Amino acid sequence: MAYYWFKAFHIIGVVVWFAGLFYLVRLFIYHVEADAEPEPAQSILKQQYTLMEKRLYRIITTPGMIVTVAMAIGLLVLMPDYLKSGWMHAKLGLVAVLLAYHMYCARLMRKLEQGECRWSSRQLRALNEAPTLLLVLIVMLVVFKNNLPADATTWLVVGLTLAMAVTIQLYARKRRRDKERAQQAESPAVEEQALQES
Ligand code: HEM
């Protein structure tokens, strides 16, 4: 029975952890894009995003990570033989990358607060795809274990995931370009109106 409890809360922890990681980097994107706003909106937005990022990291993301890892330790204590399996070694390697990503997000959060973040919103959008990829790989490993298939269906799932990530990037780029074009089209009209008024 204890094993099922650990597994249930392990999965709940995973959902909370990933929700936090996805939303955190989305907030970083808005935070960086606030640079394009005029004052005082820029300062107000940045202050608000800093607060939201800190709360999200402390109240959702890190507790999600702690619950996931604590429950995983419980699972391994009850089933120590999993530690001899190849799929578990691969999973632990990917989890190490995920933990490094989690810590890197904390570093980015501090840099953003200090106004020293060098990442563009486009780069942050690409970074936000990393946990998606890790999620897909880890879930595939834990479900298929050592029988991870390499057939057409698997490649279809991998291909669809990659296509989804690329589509999101392209759509975001299109929206950014449309916005820039609209701003460029607006500025001569505004200048003309200002001239007429003077
Ligand atoms: C701290 C590192 C982790 C360890 C040691 C670990 C270990 C385990 C173990 C032993 C199981 C039970 C497997 C079974 O009963 O078949 C499990 C289940 C599971 N883990 Fe993890 N896990 C870790 C992190 C993660 C992460 C980061 C994710 C998500 C990306 C994840 C997703 C899952 C899922 C979805 C299951 C349920 C699989 C099923 O019941 O078929 N785990 N984990």
UniProtKB/TrEMBL annotation:
It is an enzyme of class 1 (oxidoreductase). Residues 179-198 are annotated as: Disordered. Its cofactor is heme b. The keyword Transcription regulation does not apply. The keyword Oxidoreductase applies. It comes from the Bacteria. It holds the Pfam family UPF0093. Keywords: Cell membrane, Heme, Iron, Membrane, Metal-binding, Oxidoreductase, Transmembrane, Transmembrane helix. It is a multi-pass membrane protein. One of its GO terms (molecular function) is protoporphyrinogen oxidase activity. GO terms for biological process: protoporphyrinogen IX biosynthetic process. Heme binds at H10, K91. Its EC number is 1.3.99.-. InterPro entries: HemJ-like (IPR005265). It is found in: Cell membrane. Pathway: Porphyrin-containing compound metabolism; protoporphyrin-IX biosynthesis; protoporphyrin-IX from protoporphyrinogen-IX: step 1/1. The chain crosses the membrane at residues 6-25, 56-80, 86-105, 126-146, 152-172. Homodimer. Catalyzes the oxidation of protoporphyrinogen IX to protoporphyrin IX. Belongs to the HemJ family. This is Protoporphyrinogen IX oxidase. It comes from Halomicronema hongdechloris C2206.
